[in-house]
Amino acid sequence: MSPDAHAPAALTAESTSRFITAGDVRLHYHEAGEGPVLLCIHGGAPGAFGWGNFGQNMPALSSQYRTLLVDLPGYGLSDKPQVGDGRYLFYAQTFRAMLDELGIERAHVLGMATGGGAGIMMSLEYPSLVDRLILVSSVGGMPLVTPSPTEGIKAIQSYYGGDGPSLERMRDYLGLVVHDQGLVTDTLVRERYEASIDPDLVASAPEGHGHVRRPTDEALWQRLHEITHRTLVVWGRDNRMQGYDNALFMLNRIPDVEVHLFGRTGLWVPFERAARFEALLTAFLEAA
Predict the structure, then answer these.
(1) CA distance 245 to 12
(2) Whole-number Å distance between alpha carbons of 269 and 136
């Protein structure tokens, strides 16, 4: 028998892929690991999906936690329902149903960008379901000095307009998401572009189709003081989607909170600073 005969199988998108019906929504997610549950909710943008945002972190996170990387409704391989005003409550209700179906009574929740909004709403509406909350480049803050909308938000809102999606538009968009432009590889651009032109995604266009009214989101910033969970806020100083002044606003509003800022880093902290982010997350979750 070879020395590697009993080695664990490599974690891939295919080997960890799962589906579950949560309420009226069929959700796609990835699962690996044992221990306390860590629910990871990705950001909302053209071509976004759970593995695309957090797949590089799965080996480290699943070595200590039962890690669930979910595709938001409307993205990836999850159902793409038409979601009207108040989408964060809809997301929170869907993830509550998901955890109920899995028999999970309590979970740490990690949300990035739009996923952070879902995490905030889960903490507000279902506090007993959430253990600790991690918000990465999250919506829900308030830009104190950053002009709004930012150049990154403008890129998202215009992606499906005009001549429509293209590899060039996706490359330009990803260049706004990270600080290190060397990370914007042809493979990454192609992967995100192909995901962004899925016909069902284009039909629902969660982040705003050029000629369709964008749903009105909840004003989460008005309720941050209601969050009772221990919260970690993580940001990149060079975030061109959501300026780090949003993190400072959260610092002043969330009662039990700590903030970590990375220099030379954009919105996608778990990708640009993978090892440091994983260590920071683990330390936060394990701290007494």
Answers:
(1) 36
(2) 7
Is residue 198 one of the residues assigned to a domain?
Answer: no
Cα distances (angstroms) measured from residue 149 to each of 49, 138, 146: 23, 15, 9
Let me know if residue 113 belongs to a domain.
yes
Q: Can you give the residue range of the structural domain that contains 84?
A: 17-148+215-286
Ordered per-residue pLDDT tens for the chain, 288 residues: 444 444 456 899 999 999 999 999 999 999 999 999 999 999 999 999 999 999 999 999 999 999 999 999 999 999 999 888 899 999 999 999 999 999 999 999 999 999 999 999 999 999 999 999 999 999 999 999 999 999 999 999 899 988 999 999 999 999 999 999 999 999 999 999 999 999 888 887 666 554 445 678 999 999 999 999 999 999 999 999 999 999 999 999 999 999 999 999 999 999 999 999 999 999 999 999
CATH of the domain at 34: 3.40.50.1820
Task: Answer whether residue 154 is part of any domain.
Answer: no
Q: Is residue 23 part of a domain?
A: yes
